[in-house]
Amino acid sequence: MKIMFKQSQWASMLTFRRWGGKNYSLFQAINKEVKITVLLVAYLTVVSPEVVFAQNQSSDVSMQYDLDEIKVSAQRSPVTYSQVARIVSVIEREEIEAAPVQSIQELLEYALSVDVRQRGVHGVQADISVRGGSFDQTLILLNGINISDPQTGHHNFNLPVSLKNISRVEILQGPAARVYGPNAFSGAINIITDENAENEMNLDLAYGEHNLLDLNANYAFTTGKFKQFVAANRKSSDGYIDNTDFETHNIFYHAQLESEPGKLDVQLGYTQKGFGANSFYTPKFPNQYEKTKTTFASIQYETGKKLHFKPSLYWRRHQDRFELFRDNPASWYTTHNYHLTDVLGAGLNTWFSSSLGKTSFGAEFRSENIWSNVLGEEMDEPIKVPGESDQYFTRSHSRSHVSYFAEHSLYLNKWSISVGAMFNWISDLDFDWKIYPGIDVAYQISDDLKIYSSVNSSMRMPTFTDLYYNGPTNIGNPDLKPEKSITFEGGFKFNNKAIKAHINTFYRNGKDLIDWVRENEEEKWKTQNLTEVNSFGIETGLDISPERLFGKSIFVKKVKLNYSYIKLDKGSDEYFSNYVLDNLKHKLDFTVNHSIWNKLSANWQLSYQDRNGSYMNFEDGEYTGEVAYDPFWLLNLKLQWRHKNLEFYSSVTNLLDEKYNDIGNLNQPGRWFTFGIHYKLK
Q1: What gap in Å lies between CA 345 and CA 367, rounded to an integer?
Q2: Where primarily located (predicted)?
Q3: Which domains does the chain have, with CATH numbers?
Q4: Which of 161, 194, 173, 171 is nearest to 8 (CA)?
Q5: What is the per-residue pLDDT across 94-151, written as a single tens digit (0 to 9) for each?
Q6: Residue 338 pairs with which residues in a beta bridge?
Q7: What distance in Å separates the CA atoms of residue 342 and residue 149, rounded to the nearest whole number?
């Protein structure tokens, strides 16, 4: 049976030694050890296959859903998953609940062609990139609203929601400028909350090693046509090594009102993080500390029967204090880094259907502003830092984006064609109007098999860090130009009720890509537009539901396999590159979900990562030379027992206790046990 879903809402650099993120906005006036050993016993004594096959009822975590009719945000007008002539990875709620992870960042660790490099675990801070791009080249959306940070991509995942509030994650691989606008350079990730929330309350409590404590509560209720969702979360830990402790707080409100004229959608969110940043940006100073605050609000309204209008307005403020010394500062250290960024955006998306297909057009305005004591141009008059005593912003910068969109999608017999373009103007550097077109084409060979190809262009503006950060080993470049690319892609998709599979290849020609470079080891790193960087990749995915395949209850409920190979070539050898060529070359992800006995189930996740690039090894207080990243395997496991509205679970990450690092000299956590309980109250 197909489950029909409502349409979703439309949707480190190591050289950055001393930064923080604070937003300066149009709103300037605002001043204001418990190891769960039973887990080991359980997975070492899994019930024999004969007993499992004898079960008559399916496990409660059986992931029997059909993606075909889900509306995904892969075009300017609404489109179903089955119609998209691109690779869109969808992580559904059932898969999220079964995953042995504790944060959205850890969840994305097992997504196709997604590179997650965690500085702070459990969602504290991570750099997320897609298809070999940098962490600044991936656009992040919350219920279709752009929440990316213009200061640096390090802050993109400062979300006001926890993993427990996520209904679905959509990952659009490849450029998406004509869909989402500037900065959707190598991909876009849309996080969707409370999509099918009913009148219920959910309570979650998790406790783990290193004094990990995770508390979640959310409440969804409907009054007539007024649907509301409110969620709160607190998470903390003493840290897995010295100075990796953290404490985070989230609060989120989402309301939807459906009326005869149309549908109103409102979001409000706030998140606060304080964390030890051991070697986050340089191993020379392991006693770093950072505190961030993010406030987010948006309003959307959709109206019209034949001609649909969807205006939107959003605001995001991010404030950051970065301390190079958490305590006992050096005599030469005079002040912390303070930043405040304000982003104000407004957009209008319009579409209609006719005998010729779906036509959409729209516009977006986005104002990006920063106030800082480090980034930007010198101000005539200092401005007091909100919430800090005797601290002042002395630098600032503002820029504006104006974008117009047009797209037409045609579904004719076995053909699906979508063609469109973004017209863009940016106030910085007095750029002229630029156009970024794209086309997606697919042909349905049979009921289950489709062939597709696409050509899309994209761009990304430099972050404020790229432009202005100057430090002991770094020099920013205010004259940077936007990155540009054109990507060619093609492949096959196979999709039926039991098996979903695809294989594709892509080639991206990148121009003016921004990197920290130098001509020799004696020079400082500086940001510069590289002449050309080309990317070639192969991706394949396989998703099997054995019960649907064999038509009966089977102890294995879900099998999923993703593999990607990506190679990057720099067109010029004139410079040493610090980041652009530092990507995952091979990535293999394997997931198995199976029942054990009665209402007990298990979910295994295995990942292999082999990274290009290298880093300067740091030992005994000094750099000892450049070393390459070692490939590694990661194995995670989660056990779940469910009965009606009650669930107990126990999970272990890095089960094999692998010693590894995926970003500079920062060692990642070893084996980590967590136990949790979830209760749903109708």
Answers
A1: 6
A2: membrane
A3: 23-325+340-353+365-386+395-681 (2.40.170.20)
A4: 194
A5: 999 999 999 999 999 999 999 999 988 998 999 999 999 989 999 999 999 999 999 9
A6: 321
A7: 9
